[in-house]
Amino acid sequence: MVPSFSLRVFLIFLFILSILIQAQNDMDGVIDWAVENGAFVHPLIEYRDGGIFAKADLAEGLVVTKVPAQIILAFDEGPNGDNMSASRQCEFVKQVDSYLHDPESFWYPYVSSFPTSCQSLGCYDLESLSDLLTVRGTMEAKDVLCNGDNDNDVLGSVVFS
Question: Where does the signal peptide begin and end (predicted)?
């Protein structure tokens, strides 16, 4: 039996709703993790519906969030604020990917919340990623970014699923 049009629309709605609820739960988990590790989120601030909202009017100059440096993963900077070399960037991507596959990792609650759409580096093909990192040429980028690693999934393994 084929479901009626209205039933199909309702089932699609439920599917989309389940995705949104999971995204909300992931973000709630990240916020909880951040607070447990020294972050501050003002009680009048909340994450919902894919954005950050104030529950009431906020006074000018009110500090609404603080995030300690030790819970920030930065792709474009090294530990001293210097720009990372392309090979270091590749190592960084591999390290983040390893956090994603280790539920016991300190970083797991954070990296597991990354979007799986093309907002993440894992959605770029090597040529696009090389352009993004201002390295010219696909083969050169592969050699520079991955130290000659010929595994085609080295950068694609960052796709968070």
Answer: 1-23
Distances (CA, A) of 73 to 79, 151, 158: 10, 25, 15
**Of 69, 95, 117, which one is at a domain's C-terminal end?**
69
Q: Provide φ and ψ at 132, rounded to 5°.
A: -60, -40
82 and 128 housed in the same domain: yes
Shared domain check, 61 and 82: no
Q: What is Dmax (Cα atoms) for the chain?
A: 63
Q: Which helix (H) or strand (E) holds 19?
A: helix 5-36
The verdict on 136 and 97 lying in the same domain is yes
Q: Are residues 58 and 77 in the same domain?
A: no
Tell me, yes or no, whether 57 and 122 share the same domain.
no
Q: What is the pLDDT of residue 9?
A: 53
Asked if residues 113 and 31 have their Cβ atoms less than 8 Å apart, the reply is no
Residue 100's nearest CA partner among 87, 91, 90, 109 is: 109
CB 157 within 8 A of CB 101: no
pTM above 0.85, yes or no: no
